[in-house]
Amino acid sequence: MSEGRIDAEAKATGTAKYTADIVLEGMAYAAVNRSDFPSAMIGNIDTTVAEKLDGVLGVFTAKDLPCSSNLYGRRVFDVPILASDRVRRVGDPIAAVVAVSREIAEAAAELIEVDYKELPAVTTAHEALQSGAPLLHDKAWEYRGAAVTKESGPNIQSFETHGSREAAEAALRNAVHIVDEVYTTPGDHQGYIEPQACVVDYHSDGSLKVWATNKSPYRLRDILATVFALDPKKVEVMPIILGGDFGGKGAPGEVPLCTALSILMGRPIKMVLRYGEDLLSTDGRHGSEIRVRLGIDGDGKLVGGIVEALLDGGAYAGFKPVLTVNLHGISDAAIAYRIPDFYVESKIVYTNNQPKGHMRAPGSPQAAFAFESALDELGRRSGIGPIKIRELNLLSAGDVNPYGDTWLEYRGKEVLALATSQPNNLKVPKGWLYGEGIGVYARSMAAVPKTSLRLRKGDGGKIIAEVPIPENGAGGQTVVREMIRSGLGIESDKIEVKQVSTSFLPTDAGVGGSRVSLGVTVAVAEAIKLWKQMSADEDLVEITTDEGSDGDSGAYSAQLARVAVDPETGELKVLEIISAVDVAEIVNQKAHQMQIDGGAVMGLGFAVMEDLLEDDGRVWALTMGEFKIPNSADVPQLTTALLRGGQGVGPNNIKAVGELTNCPTGAAIANAVADATGVRVRSLPLKAEAIYWAMKEGSAK
């Protein structure tokens, strides 16, 4: 089996082409003037000085836009291309400049003068729900794709429930031991290396070509066709690799604006965000406040549970793709356990903060931190212990999970045992407190995404596989090659895999949701079957798969964190993260391991350092020095233990791994801190100051 990544050489040698590298004849550059206020009415916009700057080709405001609607979104069309009468967050685009260079466009954008009438702002989720709170959107239920109704209440983006609150409340009243605590996490950013960028080229015949840092080309095509009343067949999203994604590159970004500018200017338009601008204006992870109530009987068995999640969705709902605009990961919090009466409520609200979207396993890291921390507290308070309480309540063969599903297998107990059995050879700093903590996470593997694929004969006996999926760094195109290699029994160097534009294949659901490997293996298996039946005079096969299910399967991960805490300062050192992972067959060993390690490191960042520092409606962490993500010096010892032999899905019997190891990390580390210090910190990131004061006062902070 070949282990090399298709995209490795080009990236290592610098020959890989990203959106920022695209140069077209006659191309101009765009920049925007953004709001300085979280909530304000827009008065006069003075562009005269900017227009006179040498090299400026045009300055435009909302009144100039060449579209019937100024709004767009992935599902809910509530995001303005340019703000017209009011702004709802710091960073809302007010006016756009087109110039002969990026630098001139940026300089001119700063010269635009805007008169504002500041309005009251709601900058926390709780404020947004208060009686009489200012409305961000007067009639949110009227937006195209809205997930709310007139009766939903003020400032609601979405509201989802599962189970019976009454039954869960009754079960908790009869519990022998209970825990009732609130856990919080801040706004976050995906931390991809490549900032958001696009190049748009519109022609007078109504055709449009787009290069963009976007992982969902077909959805992007449809959004642009809708907003600008274009024929979708004339909108072509071109193939391009992404410099990282982690959920952050599914929204249209600045593509609608640059499309409007290209139409107005009659020339290609390019826009590349500075990283500070990306941190300010794109869609990061939702900040959360999650209340967890759990109860057990005298034998340590869970009898009931209630999870109530309040999430800050920011100024717009349009950056989320699902029809409910909710975060499916909130429901994953308890899916690993047997809970007879369980109720979950997830409420996302509008605030005058940065709009939030999807980030690796959206909702799951927040929910796993809260649920696994609460379960840990319950285990310690009851005297059962954090490991035993999980062993008693993890699902077993034939069990029904809290959502009424029964999987082919439950291997949570096995991965828990695997994680806790790993040897310990660590050296703890002298005088520091040592602790261990566990976190468990599970997710369904049943969804098969809709996609398409073409195999055709190439020169010299080669097979060319044309795919619709962008390479976002996870190795999806390499998976295609490996499937063809094993399915047809040919060498890897005889297979060429390349992404084609939206005009060359009919459909794809986009990269995300740990679905790529499953989707492409189903598609490749069907294509190989047809390839083997192909006659000598045929030179290609093309297939389209439908969205569906391939059986009720799931996967587990359990992480054990080993930490040390300085009792004098509260400084935290994460010494080791052990990831025990439930797997079936592995397509590419190196790529699989990279996903495990990458997830663990992302979980580390979420647990101990990442914070956009949102306050008073502003993002204060506007550099990568202020918004800290883990670098190589921060990474502890990473240990992987694979539980092989699982029942996977698809023709290659696989279990997705991309979002398994970033979710339980926050809880594992927080639980380890509690083990070391004897006190509980219920807010992420786990800062030294919070740990210090918790130890000093002997209570949670």
What brief labels describe this structure?
alpha+beta, Aldehyde Oxidoreductase, domain 3, Aldehyde Oxidoreductase, domain 4, 3 domains, seven-stranded mixed sheet, 25% helix, 25% strand, globular
Mean pLDDT: 95
Q: Count up the helices.
A: 16
**From the alpha-carbon coordinates, what is the Rg to the nearest angstrom?**
26 Å
Quaternary structure:
single chain
Q: What's the β-strand tally?
A: 29
Low-confidence stretches: none
CATH top-level class of the largest domain: Alpha Beta
> CATH topology of the largest domain, what is it called?
Aldehyde Oxidoreductase, domain 4
Strand order, biggest sheet? 3-7-1-14-11-12-13
Instruction: Tell me the CATH architecture of the largest domain.
Output: 2-Layer Sandwich
Structural category: alpha+beta
CATH homologous superfamily heading of the largest domain: Aldehyde oxidase/xanthine dehydrogenase, molybdopterin binding domain
What's the number of structural domains? Answer: 3
Biggest sheet descriptor: 7 strands, mixed
**Shape type:** globular
Distance between the termini: 51 Å
Helix proportion? 10-25%
Task: Report the β-strand fraction as a percent range.
Answer: 15-25%
